Amino acid sequence: MNEQKLSKRLERVASFVPKDAIVADIGSDHAYLPAWLYLNHKIKKAIAGEVVEGPYNSAKSLVASLGLEEHISVRLADGLEVLKAEDGVTAITICGMGGTLIRDILIRGKAKGHLSGKERLILQPNVGEPTLRRWLQAEGYQILREDILEEDEKIYEIIVAEKTGETTNYDERTLFFGPFLGEQKGEVFAQKWQQQLEKYRYILASMEKAEQVDSAKVTEVKEKISWIEEVI
To answer: Checking DSSP bridges between strand 142-151 and strand 72-76, what pairing results, if any?
Structure first.
């Protein structure tokens, strides 16, 4: 993967970035995504944010080697703290992290005034998708699109959300599977949840063998097993 050829996962993320957006890519690593977006005339400009010095330096080197310093600003800071009001960001991408960590980045960004609520959020959590959906719903975001894909024997979900002025209150089951993914289903969706079903069954068996059983937790796991069995 490089700025000329993205991974399948990042290519799918890129497809949800609006035309001529000003993008903030948080946890940008080598800045491949913003560089690809700019080189392919998809965006006006970008901020590549990194909290770790090694990836930050890699991103700086790539942007400099492409002569894109005027179009892609590489910044070292925690989460959305890389942003300034004058940036005029219209889309934020956060990829390759757990859903809880992405949620926490957004919470901190909002608390510090770096998240206005006007940006499109394009989020690719590796795990913990329901936690992220729950926060988006509580904050008045509308989930516009979802996608699921497999790459290198790993399954990834993508969640696209905006504050549109409309609100949909999803129940826990819908937040668990995703309002779009749970309806569309498909081969990769079935594969993911077959794997998850086996994990939940193992967890349940272990809990039932324990000397002290948390009955509420057992009930929760049984409920999720039931949901998965019904959906696949």
So the answer is: unpaired
Q: What is the pLDDT of residue 1?
A: 67
What amino acid occupies position 197? L
Q: At what angle do helices 99-111 and 129-138 cross, to 10 degrees?
A: 30
Interacting residues of 72 by C-beta distance below 8 A, sequence separation 6+: 31, 34, 35, 38, 45, 46, 47, 48, 63
The pLDDT tens digits of the residues spanning 188-200 come to: 999 999 999 999 9
Report yes or no on whether pTM surpasses 0.85.
Answer: yes
Q: Are 39 and 3 in contact (CB under 8 A)?
A: yes
HSE-up (13 A, CA, CB side) for residue 184: 13
pLDDT attached to residue 212: 86
SS3 of 22, please? Answer: strand
Q: Per-residue pLDDT averaged across 84-102, rounded? A: 97
Helix (H, G, I), strand (E, B) or coil at 6: coil
Domain(s) of CATH 3.40.50.150: residues in the chain: 8-177
- CB-based contact 79:115 (threshold 8 Å): no
Ranges assigned E (strand) in the chain: 21-26, 43-50, 72-76, 91-97, 120-125, 142-151, 154-162
Which CATH architecture fits 8-177? 3-Layer(aba) Sandwich (3.40)
Q: What share of the chain is helix, strand, coil (3-state, %, to 5)?
A: 45, 20, 30
- Return all residues near 55 (Cβ < 8 A) that are at least 6 apart: 28, 29, 30
The tens digit of pLDDT for each residue in 48-74 reads 999 999 999 999 999 999 999 999 999
